[in-house]
Design brief:
The protein contains eight helices and seven strands, in the order H-H-H-E-E-E-E-H-E-H-E-H-E-H-H. By secondary structure, the protein is an alpha+beta fold. A five-stranded mixed β-sheet has the order 5-2-3-6-7. The protein has a two-stranded antiparallel ribbon with strand order 1-4.
């Protein structure tokens, strides 16, 4: 990976022997591995058995989970917040595990639409919830720094499973709670 970054830097006309760039290929490779560390994680490792019996059957919402991801089309960051809700059916998941699931999928080359779906399906699969709702809002550097160069545009995506999809009142309650 270091060699690849060195070639990229040289291909834009830079001198790798310049003092400020001497260790840049190694630093860039280390940073890129860190930014994409979600590939080194599995859902089972992230959840780590943190599922607990509960007779609660009311909506659980975790909102404003900040994340950083990388657009798979341009390798530029997109940054935002995820809002996750589920309706338990006998089991609840540890609170921090929801944020860790968001991070695991965010720390992969992604498009926001797929990330939203992956998070919802992961929460559903580990909790067996009656329903799961995920809303993600993000700013994309590929739109801000290149292309149309629009600074205030943001993107919102949602994925509704189970009762969040089939019951408009459940969906509306979730949406009102995250506003």
């Amino acid at each position: 990976m270091e060699k690849a970054f060195a070639e990229i830097i040289e291909s834009i006309g830079e001198d790798l022997n310049r003092e400020g760039l001497l260790d840049t290929p190694a630093r860039a490779a280390k940073a890129f591995r860190f930014l994409n560390r979600g590939y080194e994680q599995s859902l089972e490792e992230v959840v780590n058995g943190a599922l607990f019996p509960s007779d609660n059957s009311e909506m659980v919402v975790v909102q404003d989970i900040e994340f950083y991801s990388m657009c798979e089309h341009h390798l530029l960051p997109f940054i935002g917040k995820a809002h996750v809700a589920y309706i338990p059916q006998g089991m609840v998941i540890g609170l921090s595990k929801i944020a860790r699931i968001v991070d695991m999928y965010a720390r992969r080359l992604q498009i926001q639409e797929n990330m939203t779906k992956e998070i919802a399906e992961a929460i559903q699969s580990v909790t067996n919830a009656a329903g799961v709702g995920v809303v993600i809002e993000a700013k994309h550097m590929c739109m801000m720094m290149r292309g149309v160069e629009k600074q205030s545009g943001s993107m919102k995506t949602s994925m509704m499973l189970g009762s969040f999809r089939s019951n408009s009142a459940t969906r509306a309650e979730f949406m009102s709670l995250i506003k």
